[in-house]
Amino acid sequence: MKTYEWELKNGISRTKEFEKKGLAQYAVNIGLKCGHACTYCSTGAMLRVHHAFKELGVSAFDNSYAIIDPSTPQRVVRDACKIKKRAMVQLCTTVDAWSPEAQEHNVGRKCLEAILSEPGWTVRILSKNAAVRKDFDLIEKYADRVIVGLSITATPDKSDVIKVIEPNASSIEERLEALRQAHNRGLRTYGMLCPLLPGIADSAEQIDELVKSMVDRGVEEIFAEAVNPRGRGLILTQQALEAAGYHTEAAAIKNIRNRRNWSHYVIRLIKNVQQSVRKHSDINKLRFLQYSSGLKEGDIAEIKKDDAGIVWL
């Protein structure tokens, strides 16, 4: 995978969108394109107008490269000192601070050190890479100020399928083990079940297994989300699955490219997640992130009959 270096302007930035989600008030992002190369990623759709893509002569939807800014920690140091109203920072919101290219520059740890060196800041870590456990020693020193999450997108029996659509991320087993290690070391943890793709991680049985695995790892909250249909993510995911011979899963993805079917998939997913969290945990811990846009009007009404644990965006 080719890696480009591109200097960004921001260090710690306000993020009203993630504040609505209940995740963080601030964000740090260490690049524009993540080397995990997840086919369904919506970051390309969000950042496609950034002039870096045009100047580098690449498409925001091409997953064969990464864009990182190794100098990000320098701006984080600056902003961590300068900003007076301090709160939760998410590391990261659009890219992964422990992706392969980020690890080469140790960007995740450097950003953590920069934020935590100043009092008043707390950090929410989200990664698809078990390499974050290399920094548990640092996190232990600030255990009350950091909460660790690894994005879990399927049950272990679907690891081969997930490897096709998340080719450079850690395996599901490695991510679950990293989260277990965090819990065993007394670190704060939260669950991020996102995205729960149809045909891969949306059945009642699969969600039960995922929720129980989060409970076993002492999570304070359980976030969940349907796949974002924005951009070319669903098409790329379907194509990758078909090319790898996973035709049943590819058909399930193709099915929700239709708005009506996507809306129905969301209803089923929400009900399955709510049922599982009620059975194995506390519904007050659930944070199912859901935009009303894209849903059929009748389906919104159906969901609102019981929207416990849903964060409407």
Written overview of the protein:
The chain has 313 residues and is an alpha/beta fold. The chain has helices at 16-20, 43-47, 51-56, 72-82, 100-105, 107-116, 136-141, 159-165, 172-184, 204-216, 233-243, 247-255, 259-280, 297-304; strands spanning 2-5, 13-14, 26-28, 31-33, 65-68, 88-91, 122-127, 146-150, 188-193, 219-225, 286-290, 310-312. A nine-stranded mixed sheet has the order 2-3-6-7-8-9-10-11-12. It has a three-stranded mixed sheet with strand order 1-5-4. Strand 7 (122-127), helix 7 and strand 8 (146-150) form a beta-alpha-beta unit. The longest helix has 22 residues, at 259-280. The chain is globular and about 50 Å long. The mean pLDDT is 97.
Largest sheet descriptor: 9 strands, mixed
Helical fraction equals: 40-55%
CATH topology of the largest domain: pyruvate-formate lyase- activating enzyme
Order of helices and strands: EEHEEHHEHEHHEHEHHEHEHHHEHE
Query: How many individual β-strands?
Result: 12
The domain count comes to 2
Structural class: alpha/beta
CATH architecture term of the largest domain: Alpha-Beta Horseshoe
- First CA to last CA: what distance? 35 Å
% residues in beta strands: 15-25%
Unreliable segments of 5+ consecutive residues: none
In spatial order, strands of the major sheet run 2-3-6-7-8-9-10-11-12
Q: Work out the helix count.
A: 14
Shape from CA axes?
Answer: globular
CATH class bucket of the largest domain: Alpha Beta
**Overall pLDDT metric:** 97
> Whole-number radius of gyration?
19 Å
Helix and strand layout, with pairings?
Elements: E1 2-5, E2 13-14, H1 16-20, E3 26-28, E4 31-33, H2 43-47, H3 51-56, E5 65-68, H4 72-82, E6 88-91, H5 100-105, H6 107-116, E7 122-127, H7 136-141, E8 146-150, H8 159-165, H9 172-184, E9 188-193, H10 204-216, E10 219-225, H11 233-243, H12 247-255, H13 259-280, E11 286-290, H14 297-304, E12 310-312
Parallel strand pairs: 1-5, 3-6, 6-7, 7-8, 8-9, 9-10, 10-11, 11-12
Antiparallel strand pairs: 2-3, 4-5
